[in-house]
Specification:
This protein is α/β, with parallel strands linked by helices and 543 residues long. It is built from 19 helices and 22 strands. It folds into three domains: 231 residues, Alkaline Phosphatase, subunit A (3-Layer(aba) Sandwich); 113 residues, no CATH class; 46 residues, no CATH class. The radius of gyration is 23 Å and the shape is globular. The C terminus is likely disordered. The chain binds zinc ion (ZN).
Length: 543
């Protein structure tokens, strides 16, 4: 078996908050080995806390203002909501650039990569694909069938973890184990059949499980409430060991997550109510059609497998657009609203420039921004009195490029040590205390900024703990290691100082002029839509 020179292993939602204590306790021997004999840093994903932009940042080296992926739903250039796929991405991934240069890259399950690219080796798309049978899921076509013939039943995703929690699961659900183990088997099978210069695989179970099985208590090695996640990370550790067993002394390995995780803090979910109390939003009944649609969307999110929600939305683009809008803006009249909060605590201004229902003019923007920053800085924890927001940034501090218009206007850094379940505001002669509830009652964990980044193997300086890095370094580093020139508009730079001088000396940083923003190939035709519709009808999801 010819082995890739570069191996990237993604673990969605992994954080050193779990990895380090469990590695130190002897539960994760492979992680412990990698930390000791590799180099590592916290990966700071703020303010790109969603998996869709986060993974796209990682594999392109560009911020969303340049690559145009902000969320799983994209309003994008057409001003109409649709589920995000790789065709919305306007900057190339590292594997596209390597493939253009004649190198061979294996890619498996990276979010927002449907349809798959021709990588001169193999590629299976990620969670934005409707299913594994659809045309464009795999390149070359027929990989899924090929795996099946080899006894490997590839599992794209597990949509119903919430139902498992409701049924009282206390250990790692078998379907999560199956999905994870099958991914490794499939990856190794394809690596053997299609030799690669570089390869990347992403495990998504970390994210799926952390949402439901996170805890407020410390992750002690024997705490029973942490058992499902501990089992999962031990399973990841075993996958790493197996993958490393197939790496040679010529392989450099990266283990990376897209964001970290932490407990749900309900205070953050009270922001829209507070903005309404303070007059920045006007309450209003969403009209009945919208309410129905919103409810449908919620039900849809619970029962429709993740990959199929996109298909459903594409079949009913107008209904989904209204539902998505009602879902996000449901409790207030959009045309009488100046600002609204994003779920993670940022605030967006309803500007004339960016929305058909926008009411905030350019002339008002700065004063309103400052007013809202004052509101955020005046938030406190009613139990302790501690302030909740440590810093606030402008969109322009973190986003740049032609599509920065979709960026959140006020990027608030919440001081998670101080944030609890109640939201207090003191200002303008008012003292308001709110006790918000979570829109998804059985969620226990939410994304936080601190992800993981570990480098190990060929060329890597051993045992170094580096200062935090961002999403934008991985792609330039891989391109540099594979002797490709680096576009001069990349947001990151190669991590040259993570490597031994003897390794760095063999690779040069060569700039090149930036390429144009190129949308990906179009995806589905009517016949394919009909196929999916037929299957959804069979399952009873649509009439
Ligand atoms: Zn994620």
């Amino acid at each position: 078996m010819e082995l890739p020179r570069t191996l990237i292993i993604g673990i969605d939602g992994a954080t050193f908050d779990l990895v380090k204590p469990w590695a130190e306790a002897g539960l994760l021997p492979t992680f412990a080995h990698l930390l000791k004999h590799g180099a590592h840093a916290t990966l700071n994903s703020f303010p790109h806390l969603l998996s869709a932009p986060a993974w796209t940042n990682l594999v392109t080296g560009y911020n969303p203002g340049q690559h145009n992926i902000y969320n799983f739903l994209n309003m994008g250039r057409t001003n109409s909501w649709h589920p995000t796929t790789a065709r919305d991405r306007l900057k190339p991934t590292f594997w596209q650039l390597l493939a253009d240069a004649g190198q061979r890259v294996g890619v498996m399950n990276v979010p927002i990569t449907f349809p798959a690219d021709d990588t001169n080796a193999f590629m299976l798309s990620g969670m934005d694909a409707p299913d594994t049978e659809i045309r464009g899921f795999a390149r070359p076509a027929g990989l899924v069938q090929e795996l099946r013939a080899a006894g490997i039943d590839y599992i794209l995703d597990v949509p119903n973890v919430g139902q498992m929690v409701q049924s009282g699961v206390k250990t790692l659900p078998p379907v999560i184990r199956d999905m994870t183990v099958t991914r490794t088997r499939a990856f190794l099978h394809l690596l053997e059949k299609y030799p690669c210069d570089a390869a990347m695989v992403v495990y998504v179970a970390g994210d799926r499980l952390s949402h439901y099985f996170w805890n407020e208590s410390p992750p002690l090695p024997d705490a029973p409430e942490w058992k499902p996640l501990r089992d999962l990370f031990q399973l990841f550790d075993a996958q790493l060991a197996e993958l490393l067993a197939h790496a040679s002394s010529d392989t450099t390995v990266f283990i990376v997550s897209d964001h970290g995780f932490g407990p749900v803090k309900l205070a953050k979910y009270g922001l829209n109510d507070l903005l309404q109390r303070l007059g920045y939003q006007t309450a209003g009944k969403p009209h009945s059609g919208n309410r129905v649609l919103r409810d449908l969307l919620h039900v849809g999110r619970r029962i429709v497998p993740l990959g199929w929600q996109g298909r459903l939305a594409m079949m009913f683009p107008r209904a989904h657009a209204q539902a998505a809008r009602a879902d996000k803006l449901g409790k207030f009249q959009v045309s009488k609203t100046k600002a609204y909060a994003m779920f993670w605590g940022g605030v967006r201004l309803n500007t004339v420039e960016h929305s058909p229902d926008g009411i905030v003019t350019d002339a008002e923007y700065d004063a309103l921004w400052n007013e809202l920053a004052d509101v955020l800085y005046s938030l406190y924890n009613p139990e302790t009195g501690a302030p909740l927001v440590a810093d606030i940034y402008h969109a322009g501090d973190y986003f740049r490029g032609p599509w920065t218009r979709d960026a959140t206007d006020l990027l608030a850094v919440w001081d998670n040590r101080n944030v609890g379940h109640a939201l207090g505001y003191r200002g303008k002669g008012q003292n308001i205390v709110l006790h918000p509830s979570h829109p998804r009652a059985n969620w226990r964990g939410v994304h936080e900024a601190e992800g993981i980044f570990i480098a190990y193997g060929k060329g890597v300086r051993e045992g170094v703990a580096h200062p935090p890095i961002t999403h934008f370094e991985l792609a330039p580093t891989v391109l540099w290691m594979h002797d490709q020139p680096l576009s001069d508009d990349l947001d990151g730079h190669p991590l040259v100082d993570w490597f031994e001088p003897s390794f760095s000396a063999n690779h040069s940083v060569t700039p090149r002029a930036a390429s144009a923003y190129v949308p990906g190939a179009d995806i589905l035709n009517d016949a394919e839509n009909e196929r999916v519709e037929h299957r959804l009808r069979q399952m009873g999801y649509i009439e």
